[in-house]
């Protein structure tokens, strides 16, 4: 996909990642890795031997890593649901800092406990140093044959009549009790320019089951951080994720709902 941009408003609680790293969330989540390169159950890598393996195990997906360079101090893991090729979406992602990355170097793996039985996923990983956008990328594909922790209620993300607010129909309930992180919710505005391959995304985190995006501020952020000027009518949808803490203390941002698409004129 060409012309991808990412911007972010300073969250209610400062995110681990700066804007440079946040671009990787979008790169992985827009199915660059969803093209299903590599062999299921094997190890695939893009550069310098860095690789990620994915295996369905009781309790979720076991993600294993190979040749994580010692000078890298962060890793981003994104899980893309590719079950329906026409409706791929980011199912979850996590941001790994230097201390947790050291633990993964020792153990060689991490469990993704939020897999849904019968769904097919592409797992993407990016690692880097400092505030870079990620210098090494790896990916793999796996079919979940065991049920992990899942959202059990049917949640919608509803827009008010003038599309100035997106509100969750109810608070997410999980099939297994796990603590929520704070801020609890992660909202992403996906913006697509008509008659163009360009797309943009903007995120904000808060503890409320609703979000009132300030599109003037979004346009200003994109103009400042990516030198991109939004103008004219653009198609937008809002995605909501909730932030939960797994048993190993990894915080995962998992998809819970996405709004209908609407048009906003910048």
What does this structure look like?
The protein is mainly β. The protein has two domains: 128 residues, Immunoglobulins (Immunoglobulin-like); 109 residues. 14% of the residues lie in helices and 42% in strands. The protein has three helices and 17 strands. Strands 1, 5, 6, 8, 9, 12, 13, 15, 16 and 17 form a ten-stranded mixed beta sheet that branches. Strands 2-3-4-7 form a four-stranded antiparallel beta sheet. Strands 10-11-14 form a three-stranded antiparallel beta sheet, with no helix packed on it. Strand 3 and strand 4 form a beta hairpin. The radius of gyration is 18 Å and the shape is globular.
Key features of this structure:
266 residues; mainly beta; Immunoglobulin-like; four-stranded antiparallel beta sheet
